[in-house]
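Hi C.,

You asked whether I'd gotten around to modeling the 215-residue construct. I have! Everything is below, sequence then structure, no commentary in between.
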Amino acid sequence: MCQSISITAQASELTERFKLDNVLFHFSNRYEVNPTDSVSAIFESKNGRILDEFRWGMVPYWARDSVRMDSAGLFDKPIYDRIVQKQRCIIPCSGFYVTRTIGKEVHKMKLAMRSGIFAIAGLYDVFRPASGDEMRTCTMLMTEANSHVSPYQPLMPAILEQEHIGDWLERGKKTPYELRSMLRPMDAMRMLAIPLSPTADHMVDFDSPRTEWVK
């Protein structure tokens, strides 16, 4: 289920692509971001469109640790109404990784958009522990997998069209039908599917750029 993502870009590129008004942390390239790591996410506030750091994985009262959420039933459950209407975000991304095990080999593949950086639809919340500082958290929305991803898993991240980003981030004002229509599988022809050499998990160095090759 989209085990990790990468975000490699200049802060100026993110500002231009996503029309940011403010960046609240020192942004740097991340070649491997895993669930429960800090992740860059964009949301709308009274001060404009903001890029900030979030914990990847919400900690809501109705789930143990929500890293990903299937968008299929998102708009049919009243429990999600508040967060869907007021707390939508996007996760800027340059690629995401999927894996499957065949025999003793772990096969990994990177998916990216031919057009460059893209936005994954997400939701965010603020977790307030009994002690300690409050923590901003987010989850990634998933939709039906396209032909690149389906051999690995049934769902893929919901990648937003560029023209839908503003509508997704704007709080309220969109009907469930309008929001649901934005969360559909990305056309496989618009994506790059890059196989990575099969390797044992203990041999993967996730903290450095990968050498990628196409079979």
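If it helps when you're writing up: Confidence is low (pLDDT under 50) at residues 200-215.

Thanks,
B.
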